[in-house]
Amino acid sequence: MLQLPLAHLLNEPIGVAHFMVVGAVMFVCGALCMATKRNALGVLMGIELVLNGANINFIAFGSKYLRNDANTLGLDGQLIALFVIVLAAAEAAVALAIVLNFYNNHDSVDVDRAKQLQG
Amino acid sequence: MNLQSIINSLVSDTVNTSLPLFKPELVLCVTIVVMLLFRVLPLLDKVPPFLLALVGSVVALWSSLPLEGLSTWANLERQELFTGMLVYDSVTAYMKVFLMSFAVLFVVLSRLTGIADREDGQDYYSLVFGSIVGMCLMASSNHMLTLFLGIEMASVPSYVLAGIVKGRQRSSEAALKYCIYGAGTAGVMLYGISLLSGVLGSAHIPTMAQRLVEMDIPASLAAGEGVEPLIVLVLGGLMMGVGLAFKLSAIPFHFWCPDVFEGASAEVDGFLSVASKAAALALLLRVGLGLGYSPEAELAAVENRTEVTAIASAAEQATPPTIRLVADGVADELGEEAPGEISSPLTPIRKFFVTVVALIAIVTCTFGNLAAYGQTNIKRMLAYSTIAHAGFMMMPVAAAVSLAGHSTAEASDAVSAMLFYVAIYLFMNLGAFAIIAFLRNSMQSEEISDYAGLINKAPWLAVCMTVILFSLVGLPPLAGFWPKLRVLQALLAAGGPLLIAVLVTAALNTAISLVYYLRVAKTICIDSEPDTSRPVAIGFFPWAYVLVITLPVLIFGLLPNGIAAWAKQAADNLF
């Protein structure tokens, strides 16, 4: 019988591990999105996915229902998630303004057009 | 304890302990609000933003000084502010004084170069002050939340500052690259933080260190059991390192640095290369010492040592030779190389941190110096020079963390080398970028070749630039020599094959860097003027400013003891 990794999660009650898998999938999707999208807005969406993947981890680690030992993050986890949501909004606002400024100067939001400065 | 008493103790802790020590940041925040309010009110909008910014930064500098004068750093008690979110100790105080002095100098520079004009001065100064508040949070963070918020608060305004010059293609491109790299690495870092604090069950750094002690990593490594959490910890640590490496512009996350420095204006480059690097180094130190050093654990390790040696000698007689060999191998792996090294539960963490930081420092320093060689744009060259110096300044952090286990006196020497380096670096790099900005205003060029024959057109400026370049190399008797010497001493004290390799790299790199700094000095002082050269006119105030920044480079070269003593006092109290 083929044993897939993480297959045992399917038989268990919902716990921290399940949320971490969702968070990890979001993180990887976001990282792929950042690496492959050529549209600056697509890259920004990838960044949001990465931040929210981390947020899911924080909330799962902080929940006393999912993890019944003394080592939960407790309220810290949820507070960090709240702060990160606010921060992601602020960062998105600044990033969109910068993308708009780039568009005004280059008539495009393609990150491959940003090649006047060669690193 | 009922709710009432919890709230009462929280309020009294916040108002009586935390807020007074948080004054400099509060002053900057108030300045930002006042500047933005004055702009919309009638009559008050005639007040130049520069005045408000200058007053705000001077008051912030004044309130960041310790109450009983600068020499009392050694007696500052380590205090946790805001229920453990921030830590106030001598290093925090030192970094705050450093950042606030930088703020004052930077506000004056922005006024003199005219980058912050009456139209958008408020925006510019608010961004600078917001970023500096974030850097103060970075330098005093004691909790993963403040650490991350500090990094973001310092970065987000910097993205805008990189693109503050409107209507320039290069500037907008620099801002876009900075923003995307920065936000991406911050996301990876946050994921790493979530793994670390999830496994350790806390986001408060001293508590995390305590949990690491409880996990007893040496025992689980020796037994080969329970390594799954360790893999997650290593992964989380490396992901967190991504964010730190981005702020330090360390390899392999340095790509943004030359592009941003070339695209942004020279003043902003000065800001990024001095303040942002200094805060990132302080943060690296906090993370390294916070997670890899815990006074109680070290004391306990010393006490246990006698017992352990007794047990080990008994075991040696009892066990058959094959098992003894395996046990010896494990003991070697866990770090018995440095004589006098006491194996504490945190030794593996320290070894991991030191190895990663030392390797990155070697690569960063060497790459920065080699890449600087072929540059034709002065800002781009100084960007690579900044990368190389960041590598250099990471070295004492590695040495300090490696020494923290067995000799706190030598470890504090290493920390003081880093703090001293940061202070001297302020004058050198701010001076260099100030000169570049003034020359840009007058010549409209930032190419090294256009600086040919500068000595004839603006002799004093050329002399100042040459002094700064020599000091950046680290030639005595200029100020840049002493911190480099301190760094090498700290590495030598730390010993061990890896850190000796770092020492050799650092010494070789100083020689490599000689070539490209002196090439610029030669262009300025010896090369003849091109026929198409434009005249250079520098006013009195810019000239005086350059002199004020450059003189310390000479003075501290001859009399380095004042700043070195402050740095030493600040570092001594850390352990």
* Percent of residues in β-strands of chain A: under 5%
The biggest sheet of chain B, with number of strands, parallel, antiparallel or mixed sense and barrel status, is: 2 strands, antiparallel
Mean pLDDT of chain B: 87
Number of separate structural domains of chain A = 1
Main sheet strand line-up of chain B = 1-2
* Radius of gyration of chain B (Å): 25 Å
CATH hierarchy: architecture of chain A: Orthogonal Bundle
Q: What Rg of chain A do the Cα atoms give?
A: 19 Å
Arithmetic mean pLDDT of chain A: 88
Q: What's the β-strand tally of chain B?
A: 2
Indicate the overall shape of chain B: globular
Kindly describe this structure.
With 119 residues, chain A is an all-alpha fold. Chain A has a single domain (14-113), classed as Helix Hairpins. Helix content of chain A is 64%, strand content 0%. Chain A is built from three helices and no strands. Chain A starts with 15 loop residues before the first helix and ends in a 13-residue tail after the last helix. The relative contact order of chain A is 0.12. The model of chain A has no long low-confidence stretch (mean pLDDT 88). The longest helix of chain B has 36 residues, at 408-443. In chain B, helix 3 (49-64) runs antiparallel to helix 4 and helix 5 runs parallel beside helix 12 (266-292). Chain B is built from 23 helices and two strands. Chain B has one domain. At the A-B interface, helix 1, helix 2 and helix 3 of A face helix 6, helix 7 and helix 11 of B.
